[in-house]
TrEMBL record:
SUPFAM superfamilies with a match to the protein in the record: AhpD-like
Domain Carboxymuconolactone decarboxylase-like: 40-120
Protein name listed in UniProt: Carboxymuconolactone decarboxylase family protein
InterPro entries named in the record: AhpD-like, CMD-like
Organism: Winogradskyella marincola
Pfam family, one: CMD
Length: 200
């Protein structure tokens, strides 16, 4: 079970109103947000940051942002965030072939070189120690402008926070996220781990 119990969506009405954003993104309000609202300033600031980071300001699509989030979460090992990211990528129109082959993004023909550069950036930026280097920078600049790179790093950084929050919290994973993860990630061994409501 989770380290801290999520509160009712009715606990803080300002958080509830802001959290409508997640009904589009995921189809439900995440348990992570319901836990954060024990300190409503945190839940509200988090949701506003999430909305800002996920806004489309250039060519970095909503689907690509969620795939960037998945690569980051996969690198850090947070199964909760892996499931949420792949579900959101699905809901934001990622191509079926990309969803089915996200593990092989480096070589699979469903991904183009611009997407590979973005996803390699996510992988390098999510490692400890950080692995962003001159090669990553050069590849990014071949395909993306500086504003778009800022958008990508916003996603990576947001999920750095979420990966630490949810893996430390052992956040119970929601049914909808489990369904998407089983469909797209299960064949590669994804499982709930500590997020199944009983193993923490």
């Amino acid at each position: 079970m989770a380290l801290v119990t999520p509160l009712s969506p009715e606990h803080d009405l300002e958080t509830k109103e802001l959290a409508e954003f997640f009904n589009e993104t995921l189809g439900f309000c995440p348990n992570s947000v319901l836990t954060m609202q024990r300190r409503p300033a945190i839940s509200k600031a988090f949701i506003n940051l999430n909305k800002a980071v996920m806004a489309n300001e250039g060519r970095v699509t909503s689907a690509l942002k969620r795939m960037i989030a998945w690569v980051s979460s996969n690198a850090t090992g947070c199964r909760y965030c892996q499931a949420h990211a792949i579900r959101a990528a699905e809901r934001y129109g990622a191509e079926q072939e990309q969803l089915d082959n996200i593990w092989e993004y480096k070589t699979h023909p469903a991904f183009n070189e611009a997407e590979r550069a973005a996803l390699d950036f996510s992988l390098a930026a999510s490692q400890v120690p950080n692995a962003v280097n001159t090669d990553i920078k050069e590849r990014l600049y071949q395909h993306w402008d500086e504003g778009e790179i800022v958008e990508m790093l916003g996603v990576i950084s947001l999920f750095g926070y979420l990966n630490r929050w949810n893996d430390s919290m052992g956040t119970d994973i929601e049914t909808g996220a489990v369904e998407s993860a089983d469909q797209y990630l299960g064949k590669h061994g994804w499982e709930k781990g500590k997020h199944d409501g009983s193993k923490y």
